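Students often ask why we bother encoding 3D structure as a string. The short answer is that it lets us treat folding as translation between two languages. Here is a chain of 394 residues written in the first language.
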Amino acid sequence: MCERTTYPLIRGLLPAVGVLLLFGAGCNGGGGSPGSSPSQGPSGTPTSTPTPTPTSTQPPVAQVQCGQILTSSVTLASDLICNTASLPGVVIAGDGVVLDGGGHQITAQGYLPAVLAVANRVTVQNLQVVGSPQTAGIYGENTQGLIVQKNQISGTSIGIDVYCDTSALDAAQILDNQVSAAAQFGLRLRDESGQPVQNSPVVKGNFFQNTAGYSVMTELPQFAVHGSDTNRFDGSEYGYYLSGGSATVDGMNFMNSPVTKGPVFAADLASFTLTNSVLSIPSGPDPVQERVALHLYRVGQAQVSGLTAQGMDVAVKLATDTGIQSQLALTGSTLSGNAVAGVWIQSYDGTDFGNLTIQNNDLTSNPAGYAIHFAGISQATGIGPSSQIGPNQE
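And here it is in the second language, the structure alphabet:
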């Protein structure tokens, strides 16, 4: 769905020892030669990565230089201002390394990230990052058991960016960070390995403030969002962009942490489930930008119940194209008082939908709009034969 960040190009620019370290630390374990697979069992089957416990222990304080490759834990002794046009600010290439900012700041003035992690069980904590609009603040590639906690990141394109393609993005924990004024994403997690995930990423207690795009973007085999995660999105344009395999949302309340345009966008998923969530936002409809509480695009099967979405332009938008016959079960939800529609169902190229069940919902008081509206297809012929539209309160 998104282009891969091309940070691996820095490998050719690092010193020879750096190249060896970088290629020796991948998702399958660190410290081996290229192509080795240290985290495989005797039978050759991959073993799961235990979820590491976040540490509160501060490593020894030491001076660190811009472009330095870290293979042991350290606490920064001073701020760094780094020209990251050719090298990252700091590279973490040793398994189990903790980089503790000690409250100090790394300023990245260039295309490459302030911190690049390419080993396993790495922790980046207590760091302030000021980046450029072209880069990530903290970037992890082919790393398992990554912990990013209690950092303050501002002025980047992507605050925290994690990517795996050689093995699963396993046991990552993104905890209690503050990311402000990101131009694209506050947090992006992508797994293109095709491998099974033992421990899905944990994203809790983060504050995404004034993100120009999506606060959290995931492209993962599975991912769950819970109200108990206590992530906040104040002033950001969008909340979650969920793609990949399957995703669930439960117990979210965006009235407590409002975005300005749309709380949840789910795209290109095999399955999506939402329960007991409030996706209304206090500011209401926008005369210029359509505000959609829940936008489902090319989702194979979606189940939505107990959703409250009021005062938006559209409460639920279901859209498809390219032959994907999306199915939706929408029940027991309050989708009232929206300016354009309670439910908007649209095919962009004439692709039919699968079976749609839209029943027992409150679709009243959509002033000058629709309770349910079909666009690009006919309700009579463009949905599955076992569809049930109604009864609803309209």
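Translate back mentally: The helical segments are 16-24. Keep this in mind for the problem set.
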